[in-house]
Amino acid sequence: MPLLIDYLLDQLRETADFNPHDEVAPVAILWPDKDKEWGAAIKALATRGYRILMLGEYDAAKLTGPAIWIRIMLDSPDPLVATVHAPAAPALPPIIYLPGVSRQDLRPTKDCIPKLSPLVELLYRGVVWSQRSHRDWTVYAFLVSKDTLALTIPSEISTKQAMIRALPQLLELSTDYLRSHTLNDLFFNGLVQTTPEREILRWIGNPDVTRSAWSSDQWEAFCSLCKKEYKFDPVRDGVTRACELLGGHSKKWDDVWKRLKESPAIYPGLRDRMRSAKPGTSGLFSTPEEAWPQDVEEKDRALANQFENALTLNDATLRTLIKSLEEEHRSMRDWLWSGKDHTPYLFTLEALARLVKSTSERLRGESAQAVAQHYSLEGWLADEASLLAIASAVDTPKPELVQQLVQRIYQPWLESAAEHLQTIVRRDGMPTPAIRTQAIPGKCIVFVDGLRYDVAKRLEQNLGTFCQVDASWDWSPIPPVTPTAKYWVSPINGELVGSSTEEAFVPTVKQSGKSITADLFRKLLEQLGVQLLDGSESGDPTGCAWLEIGEFDSEGHSVGMKLANRIEENVREICKRVKALTHAGWKEIEIVTDHGWLLLPNLPSAKIPKELVSERWSRCATIKPDTSGEFFELPWFWNAHVRIGLAPGIRAFKNGVSYSHGSVTVQECVVPRLLVKNTSSGPEVAISKVDWKGMRCTVILEHAKVGWSIDIRTRQDDPDSSLIDEAKPITESGVTSVLVTEEESEGRSVNVVLLDSSDVVRGRQITLVGG
Predict the structure, then answer these.
(1) Is the pLDDT assigned to residue 87 strictly greater than 50?
(2) Separation of alpha carbons 130 and 210, rounded Å
(3) What pLDDT score was predicted for residue 281?
């Protein structure tokens, strides 16, 4: 449940993201704020330690000054304005806050306001925090946009005004809390309006600061209210007594407690006050269980002790204990002082209970296909639960304790599933992949190395928030390792064979007999007319393209168990890239992968005689010809004469392995395929003709849409490179005329761009100004 301020930070980080392979890091984030709405957010970020340079009258203490001062400070080695980390937060470039300035004011044209001109070049060295349409973010747009929170808020002026007034309080509310309430004038005004409960909580949290902010009359009124309504004298009884009454939350104090539970983050310091005010254990003062932070935290520590004791039990008793502990502690997660920072084992328990439930039923099926079908419907939930439990361990003082519990709960289910499938495969043979990837115009093929089925389900859910996704599955080639399987899911699969002497699971090109390499792979794709996309490139959506993203496999091999904590970040990055492809006009995006993987704190080991193999990896090996032995083997996918030795069950041919793939399990061999469909409806709008008469350009469109517009830019995706005053709305007839007034632009190569109603580029045609 992130707070709104944390969600805002995530959006800023996303704006500052860059591809280190073909981009340099932005020097700053420009934050235009024409109507000066975001002041409370800027103050909140500065309080958290993020560095803000603000445009305004010079005040060095407040890091505020004119544009030229901002440039000097930004380019200086002064550590005050260097890229900063807030506690436990990723790096973020300095933020340049521009109150009273819009992005349009920074356009590099003769109309640029002179006092802003020193900032114009930062449009190229930095990034602008703005909407996808390049419009500035208003607070209202940020809350309601489908690209962000998609909250439902009336658009009346009175509601927007109330919302701006309440921004300091809104920033400290969770996004889930906002989604669960009706957001209107009454709600926003209620956050701002002073209530007795709020005043008491403010005073308890920071009595000196709160008292100093009040006049004598306000203080006297507050004391009078407390005496009459809450039977408490702030002067005589003090903060400690107020905390005791709040902890008891009886009668009128229950209203104060409920107000605190609504948004505890609004009252900094209150947790520590409550901790220090807990009464002694004389028995004369009875309070609810959840009243005192240290009591809740002690229950969490006791839970850790029960986890340690659980490891001494047999498997069945351990599983029963986890279920019992979850029943007993479930309600505690809703307690005021609970949270992953303070009661981590309580939230780990939830993940462990989910793992127990999802591994309570073994994988079924009389055939490999039936086993895979059962796995694709519900078996994958066990893998997802194990990842969530492993990831939860990072918040605990003893992550290895949680990992041991995961091993005890998950390993028997994992071994049973592996042995069941391998028994069937030994009897019936291994199913082969059924789906061929083809290069089709209008389709971008996105290859994600090591996209396991359960992770793909998480990706599918995230993608489904902005597009249609059709999910299916297929079998990975044997062995399920990248050199063997990647090329099968690429459009060049028909160009490859396997050499009978191959030792590294790598197929060869039919025509040349050469082993496939990364360079040769790219050349073969280009020969098929497939565009190769790197970095943030979008390519031509009327053709076919190949894009490689995702770090699941490389990170699994390098960080092992820590992969569980990087899943969400990888999924987010893939979603972001796919969304950009849909915005660029791709009609279909097919997400494919080569293999899945096993992840367990300590995979059991197996041995295969070295003298019998020519190449040995963690869970597979190539067996030398004319040798024999008792081991699990299958023919190589690319050449049935090559024998592949496979690790039995979930074992590895190496010791101390936690992440591995290469043998036969549903986790490694059942691979997902996601077909993302761009659901924009209606006939396709296109530029059919561009005609110049002098400096006037006439654009003729097919299937014109009202609300769309035409612009002329030197850079296709940059609205600040426009040569006209503003984009010109297209007419129902489909004929639109625009005038370029700068005569020095004549003969210059430019882009005539077609913009949809959100100012997203939907088409372009290159032309010369003046024809």
Answers:
(1) no
(2) 36
(3) 60
Element at 74 (helix H, strand E): helix 67-75
pLDDT of res. 687? 86
Whether this prediction's pTM lies above 0.85 is answered by: no
Structure tokens at 515: 């082993």
For residue 747, report the phi and psi dihedrals to the nearest 5 degrees: 85, 0
Q: H or E element: which one contains 553? A: helix 552-559
Measured CA to CA, the distance from residue 629 to residue 643 in angstroms comes to: 12
| Rounded distance between C-alpha atoms, residue 345 and residue 109, angstroms | 58
Task: Render pLDDT for 229-246 as a digit per residue (tens, 0 to 9).
Answer: 999 999 999 999 999 999
Map tokens 């400290």 to a residue.
172
Comparing C-alpha atoms, which of 532, 492, 485 is closest to residue 510?
492
Q: What is the C-alpha to C-alpha distance for residues 706 and 725, in angstroms, rounded to an integer? A: 20
Q: What is the CA radius of gyration of the chain?
A: 31
Half-sphere exposure of 363 (CA within 13 A, CB side): 34
pLDDT of the residue at 585? 84
Residue 28 Cα distances to 37, 137, 256, 287, 450, angstroms? 20, 17, 43, 51, 34
DSSP helix/strand/coil, 616: strand
Q: DSSP string of 632-673?
A: EEEEETTEEEEEEEE-STT-BSSSS-SEE--SS-HHHHEEEE
What's the CA gap between 167 and 176, in Å, rounded?
16
Helix, coil or strand: residue 255? helix
The answer to whether 475 and 431 are in contact (CB under 8 A) is yes
Report d(CA 315, CA 358) in Å as an integer.
15
Question: Which position has the token pair 């004791």?
Answer: 309
The CA-atom distances, in angstroms, between 690 and each of 584, 699, 709 are 21, 5, 14
Q: List pLDDT tens digits, range 312-352.
A: 999 999 999 999 999 999 999 999 999 888 999 999 999 99
* HEC letters along 502-536: CCCCCCEECCCCCECCHHHHHHHHHHCCEEEECCC
Contacts for 221 with CB less than 8 Å, ≥ 6 apart: none
Residues 6+ apart with CB under 8 A from 274: 243, 246, 247, 291, 292, 293, 337
DSSP 8-state symbol, 628: -
Query: Which position has the token pair 């507050």?
Result: 222
77 falls in which pLDDT band (50, 70, 90)? low
pLDDT class of 284 with cuts at 50, 70, 90: very low
157-165 vs 185-192: helix crossing angle, rounded to 10: 20
Nearest to 318 by CA among 419, 430, 407, 433: 407
Contact 592, 448 (CB under 8 A): yes
What is the rounded distance in angstroms from the CA atom of residue 400 to the CA atom of residue 454? 23
Preceding omega of 609 cis (within 30 degrees of 0): no
Residue 274 phi/psi, 5° resolution? Answer: -65, -35
Calculate ∠ Cα 40-46-52, nearest 5°: 100
The residue type at 236: R
Please work out, in degrees rounded to the nearest 5, the angle formed at the alpha carbon of residue 502 by the alpha carbons of 500 and 504: 150
* pLDDT one-digit tens code per residue, 474-496: 999 999 999 999 999 999 999 99
Q: Of 141, 73, 67, 142, nearest to 99 (Cα)?
A: 67
Question: Which of helix, strand or coil describes residue 477?
Answer: coil
138, 333, 492 from 17: Cα distances, Å: 21, 34, 32
CA angle 81, 87, 92 (to 5 degrees): 40
